[in-house]
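Re: 2-phosphoglycolic acid structure - here you go.
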Amino acid sequence: MRKKKIIIGNWKMNPLSAKEAAKIFIPIKKTAGRLKKTETIVCPPFIYLKNFSEQKGKCLIGAQDVFWKDNGSFTGEISPLMLKSLPVSHVIIGHSERRALGENNEVVSKKISAAISAGLKMILCVGEKERPDEASHLNFVANQVKESLKGVSAKSAGNIIIAYEPVWAIGDGSKGPASPEDALEMSIFIKKVLTEIFGKKKADAVPILYGGSVDPGNAREFLEKGAMDGLLVGRESLNPKGFSDILRIAENV
Ligand code: PGA
């Protein structure tokens, strides 16, 4: 039987109130509840996590970031154990919007180790800012993967999902999505890097997702032509109709 597709909604810093958040979440939860071959993970801002985790139905709930210490004098931070206590099952680590605020591979690696110790599953985001020539984006992503997963043992590979998100394809000012062929090439390449780290069997089991301007119009081609294991959706995940359409597409590919 084929593996379940993984569809993740990254709500970023939206919406502005718990009431609006519920309005978006309830229809998504309904759609997710009817699916058998698709895993739905919704990642709202921290302040909505508790509420969502208490009424999540078949949806899984993820945070958008986490700190690397369990507790202590770290004003404004949220620890992996706090997330675990809600309970939240997943956390996005190393999103390009966090990297743009100064997060580097070393910080990402500390967060990954802390999340693993707490028993969280993580979505590690990688992706190049530009493609000036044929190969430098591959080297850039290989380096991100290797440095971010430094010290992670093969037995933890089952807790890792990798989202390939070329920075130039993300958000409002983007150039639009990558092509399914670009995503496929990069996912094969990431598998190769993972094989060097974890060995073939463990590496093969790590899902590779695509993210960057995904919408109901292009979701199918990333899953079929691009052979992606799933999608990380930003803007369209705040549109319950559009996100539900993406979930149904994933269920039927
Ligand atoms: P986008 O964002 O779908 O709005 O391009 C994707 C992401 O940042 O995860």
